[in-house]
Design goal:
- It is built from 12 helices and no strands.
- By secondary structure, it is an all-alpha fold.
């Protein structure tokens, strides 16, 4: 059950969400700060995951609106992948509801490790995808294969979610989309579908700590908006290294305390 929250915890959540919003504006990886902070402030792991997912969804909705003009893709593919994302998000979130707190607590370090590795090697993945699109030597896989891939990513996203966007980049690149803005638009839209539909089972199970969601959503939105100017002046590589260090530190902490 969601807990009451103290002023100190509110200030901590707002501050870390503000920083996470700034990090997301530069290089991503804000969840590596907000999710552990929820746990450190006394929120149970499964509730923290549901709360973090909800706060991310609010931010994703704003981003999806900004990207709406770039959603230039065949309507059939858009509808199929959107439907697949919704189904996968529900499956993942329901699976989380049926996962006992003890089992999830044991899984948590491995989930964080997988997300950390995905984030750490995301540049290599992007480089490979760019090479693949420049050298179109392989046949585009059938749409069915792409739908299965998106379903698995969506289930993971509904269950945990960190690193989901990077995984979706691979699926979307194989659609033959070469415009980076179109890829980001599609990724953001599908991500908002996954997180949005996952909230519904969480709401019925009363897992979302709404006070924390509001604080984090306001802090994250302000951080992303106010840091946008400074983000352009920072070296993304340095910010990524900072996020990677934090991610590995958090992962190590949870391995030691699981």
């Amino acid at each position: 059950m969601p807990q009451d929250i103290t002023f100190i915890h509110s200030l901590l959540l707002f501050s870390t969400a503000f920083i996470a919003g700034g990090l997301n504006a530069v290089a991503g990886g804000g969840s590596f700060i907000t999710f552990p902070t929820l746990i450190f402030t006394g929120v149970a792991p499964i509730t923290a995951n549901a709360t973090n997912n909800t706060a991310l969804w609010i931010a994703a909705i704003a981003s999806a609106g900004a990207y709406r003009r770039d959603l230039s893709i065949e309507k059939r593919q858009l509808l199929l992948l959107t439907g697949t994302s919704l189904v996968g998000g529900v499956i993942g979130s329901v699976a989380l509801l049926y996962t006992s707190p003890d089992v999830f607590k044991k899984m948590l370090p491995y989930l964080l490790l997988s997300a950390t590795l995905i984030f750490t090697f995301s540049d290599f993945l992007k480089s490979w995808l760019q090479f693949r699109t420049r050298n179109d030597f392989s046949a585009t896989p059938p749409l069915f294969v792409l739908l299965i891939s998106q379903l698995l990513i969506s289930i993971y996203g509904g269950f945990f979610g960190a690193g989901m966007g990077i995984l979706m980049l691979a699926t979307l690149t194989f659609l033959g989309i070469k415009n980076i803005h179109a890829i980001n638009a599609f990724k953001t839209w599908l991500g908002s579908c996954i997180n949005g539909v996952a909230i519904i089972p969480f709401m019925f199970a009363n897992l979302i700590a709404w006070h924390q969601v509001i604080i984090m959503a306001v802090g994250g939105s302000l951080g992303g908006y106010l840091c946008a100017h400074f983000a352009r002046q920072l070296e993304p590589g340095l910010v990524r290294k900072f996020v990677i260090v934090v991610a590995f530190a958090m992962t190590t902490y949870f391995f030691l305390h699981s």
